[in-house]
Amino acid sequence: MEPKDLPLPRRAGQYMINLVLRAIMGLALALPYRWRVPAAGWLISRVVAPLAGYDRRVRENLTLAWPDLPEETVERLTRSVPDNAGRTLIEVYSGRQFARHLEKYPPQGPGWEAMIAAQAEGRPVILATAHFGNFYALRIAAAGKATSAFKIASNAALGADWTNAARAFMFTVGCVHSLKCHTGDCPVGVATQDKLRQRGLVIPEKAARVARFHQETVHALKELVAAAGLEHPCEFEPHHLYHRVGPYELHPADRIFPFVQPRQLLEDPGSTRYALSWAAADPDSFQPRRDVTTERQKAYSPTE
């Protein structure tokens, strides 16, 4: 639904909420970063949420998903959910400052040690993620969408230590990718506050589908591993992965992508295609040491 299709009162309400949000973002951006994030969270939770009805939506969703939740927990979440949304929003607006802030906090939390152990042992990991906190923070740490066992195998062949899966699980709960999430008119009840539409999301049924999808995806990955004559997904190499480069031509990935040898970037980066990027990279910061845009354009521009 386009904004012009909304009833006038609803359109005016959304317009006013947008003005309030812009004012809060502008005010918060004027503050130092360490005060900016909690201030934005407090303002969204205490000002915008009551005006926009977000606190009521939180209660309705909790009643739908967890009807036996104690009232004190519901009250806490009614405040903390919009507070977290405000913090996330201002972090996205903060861009480079947010990236610099992340440098002080290495990835951590439940499951992180298991992921590190799997990496050390050469075992791939299937990581199912959702938008908890600022999902951009996770993407900075690790990214890679997958909807099939072949995609997981491809990622492993190209050197991935783990594979994220989020969109695929949205499909299993019934998402039809109608791009209506922001309108509240999701036709299958996945992203909507409409009580009638929510009836389409039968949680016990969808939960079983998600579990089966994960189980069958892992089974299909095992079949690919066996078909390649391997014993573990971590054994996939670039030559196992073929890409179509024309109507009648296939090439293995190790002939298409410029892979490097162990320690080659440390000992002889100039012999690789990544020399400029390596020279600009800083192990202690997300910021490049120098701008190599002009040099890169010269290096990769066609010769006259």
SSE order and pairing:
Elements: H1 8-29, H2 33-52, H3 54-65, H4 71-94, H5 96-102, H6 112-120, E1 125-128, H7 135-141, H8 149-157, E2 162-165, H9 167-172, H10 195-198, H11 203-227, E3 242-246, E4 249-252, H12 253-256, H13 264-267, H14 275-280, H15 293-300
Parallel strand pairs: 1-2
Antiparallel strand pairs: 3-4
Helix pairs in contact: 1-2, 2-4, 3-4, 8-11
Task: Please tell me about this protein's structure.
The protein is mostly helical. It folds into three domains: 3-102, no CATH class; 124-242, no CATH class; 260-304, no CATH class. 55% of the residues lie in helices and 6% in strands. The chain is built from 15 helices and four strands. The protein has helices spanning 8-29, 33-52, 54-65, 71-94, 96-102, 112-120, 135-141, 149-157, 167-172, 195-198, 203-227, 253-256, 264-267, 275-280, 293-300; strands spanning 125-128, 162-165, 242-246, 249-252. The strands form two sheets. It has a two-stranded parallel ribbon with strand order 1-2. β3 and β4 form a beta hairpin. α1 packs antiparallel against α2 (33-52). Mean pLDDT is 82; it is low at 138-143.
